[in-house]
Write a structure and sequence with these properties.
The chain has 11 helices and no strands. It is an all-alpha fold.
Length: 193
């Protein structure tokens, strides 16, 4: 309670102190630990945040989102290989979470592993067919792999799925890509609401 109240007021330092005090009495308190991890992130203390996510994973290994959160911080830190390992472990514990597959695909693409990236993104789309960001990342990976026609087919599919009244056939390549980017941006804005 108190740690979260301080964070809501914007006092991250006092929130961390309150969470640490609470954890000294109840070291397995999930909510205090997640609050602490997020506070460390807000302060830019990524190493501390990662340690707290590891503690959370130890407490609740079956919660895939924890593996994802740790991987996100590792990825932000530039440790893509370690982020990949965390995502793969998360998938072992919760294979039905499309976000894990999506984030694995993104991390693999950033490492230049296009074939593996595409497979992970396909799995995300299989689990959640209207996952527009996964579809977009897959098209990007196909394009980077030199599979332009397949990429364009994916871009058009995204545009048709999200704006069925738009005719994507016959548009020049650049307009197709711009159309899809507009659709993606609208989807991202919608997801923030």
């Amino acid at each position: 309670g108190l740690a979260l109240a301080y964070r809501k007021k914007g006092d991250v330092f006092l929130s961390i102190k309150a969470a640490q005090k609470g954890l000294s009495m109840d070291p397995d308190n999930f909510y205090l630990r997640i609050n602490l991890a997020r506070n460390y992130e807000m302060m830019g203390r990524k190493e501390h945040a990662i340690e707290e996510y590891k503690n959370l994973i130890r407490l609740s290994p079956g919660r895939g989102f924890l593996w994802q959160e740790a991987a996100r911080v590792l990825s932000e830190k530039g440790d893509l290989k370690q982020a990949e390992l965390f995502l793969r472990e998360g998938i072992k514990t919760q294979n039905d979470l499309p976000e894990l597959h999506y984030n694995l695909g993104v991390v693999l693409r950033k490492q230049g592993l296009m074939s593996e990236s595409i497979e992970a993104l396909k799995k995300a789309v299989d689990l959640y067919p209207s996952y527009i960001l996964a579809r977009y990342e897959m098209a990007e990976a196909l394009e980077l792999q030199g599979r332009g026609e397949e990429a364009m087919a994916k871009f058009k599919e995204i545009a048709r799925t999200n704006q069925p009244d738009i005719d994507t056939e016959g548009l020049p390549y650049g307009q197709d890509v711009e159309l899809v980017k507009d659709v993606i941006e609208k989807a991202r804005e919608k997801s923030k609401e």
